[in-house]
Amino acid sequence: MAVTIKDVSAKCGLSISTVSKAFNNYADISLETRELVQRTAREIGYYPNAIARTLKTNRSYNLGVLFQEKRGTGLTHSFFASVLDAFKSAGEKRGYDITFINHHIGWTGMTYLEHCRYRNVDGVCVVCADFYAPEVIELVDSNLPVVTIDHSFNNRSCVLSDNIGGLKLLVDAAYQKGHRKIAYVHGEKSSVTENRIIGFYRAMQEHGLNVNPDFVVEALYDNPATSMQAVLNLMDRPDPPTCILLPDDHSTLGALQAAKQLNLRVPEDLSLAGYDGIRLTQMLQPRLTTIEQDTKRIGAQAAEFLIDRIENPRTAGSETATIPVKLLEGESMGICPVKADAANS
Question: Are residues 129 and 173 in the same domain?
Fold first, then answer.
């Protein structure tokens, strides 16, 4: 005979109503009671019926994730993989499952919002997408609870990595090592890119350094080939930079290849720095100087914001969390090979 909620109630010595509330995370049920009910249910082999719970609570306990990574790396992308893992873990602790949102179910095409409604998700986290696309704007403007990562919309909660502060840390580190001719190879247009460029200009200004507009150039994120070409172009100038900041850690592979092609030693002849703090690049020789983003905290905070909005719609407002970053000092950024006063001409 199948185990029922009545069996859990009898085993715990609690009413069926209290047991049901414990399963559905009602605020008036103590943590101790919830843990007792969950532990007892596991012991006797009872699992709440998801369909019945949905009918009773009018919630699916399902969080949508919009993740459209256009370069094809998908869930192998180290930054997003770590963020999503933290989001998933935080959601599961609160009793929620995860569903990825896309355009197609079999042969049926639908918008992101239509897919969210088709899957009956309680809310959605926009992790990576073209935030300016009409379909994304339609989703954000709907009545569905939404949280975004690294992009801010009016009246929606968002979690931001401190991209302005990250570039400031890199410029500060380069300045302290005597570099004055500092170039920045940034990624394509996005909120992240805009904030990092702001951070670069602010930091240069704080140190009294003029920014050579030819030293701020665009490449593609996670694309070593475009960063390699950008570095080759910069170093072909009559008065090249002594330090180059790259869009991300992956792109530094292209910069290192460019240095090798030009017979330049890193960091003796040219200093380089990345962004993201990917573990694999910390195995490079020389070990990469970079910015480490707190991916675990970003993902967990996004889940907390979204679930709070779902469970407390009357009291949960739109919030913004800026997650601090950390400088990882490696060996790819060295002492400037020329005198600072000569470089600041």
Answer: no
- CA torsion sign for 306, 308, 310, 313 is negative
Task: Mark whether 28 and 71 lie in a shared domain.
Answer: no
Write down the pLDDT at residue 107. Answer: 64
Q: Which residue has the tokens 């069996």?
A: 7
The pLDDT of residue 343 is 45
Q: Give the helix/strand (H/E) hosting 290.
A: strand 290-293
pLDDT tens by residue, 105-155: 666 678 899 999 888 899 999 988 888 889 999 999 999 999 999 888 877
Same domain assignment for residues 198 and 334: yes
Which residues are CB-contacts of 342 (< 8 A; sequence separation ≥ 6)?
Answer: none
Is residue 284 located within the same domain as residue 184?
Answer: yes
Whether residue 25 is found in the same domain as residue 71: no
Tell whether pTM > 0.85: no
Residues 155 and 258 in one domain: no
Q: In this structure, what CATH number is given to the domain that contains residue 191? A: 3.40.50.2300
Write the DSSP assignment of 175-213 as a string of letters.
HHTT--SEEEEE-SSSHHHHHHHHHHHHHHHHTT----G
CB under 8 A, 24+ apart: contacts of 104-108: none
Mean pLDDT of 259-265: 97
- Residue 271 pLDDT > 70, yes or no? yes
Q: Note the Cα 78 to chain centre separation in Å.
A: 10
Q: Tell the residue number behind the tokens 């180059």, with chain if given.
A: 244
In a shared domain, residues 222 and 334:
yes
Range of the domain at 52: 5-57
At a CB cut-off of 8 Å and minimum separation 6, what does 283 contact?
none
Helices within the chain (DSSP H only): 5-12, 16-23, 31-44, 50-57, 78-93, 112-118, 134-140, 163-176, 191-206, 224-235, 252-261, 295-311, 340-343
Amino acid in the structure at residue 41: A
Taking alpha carbons only, the member of 273, 267, 271, 272 closest to residue 290 is 273
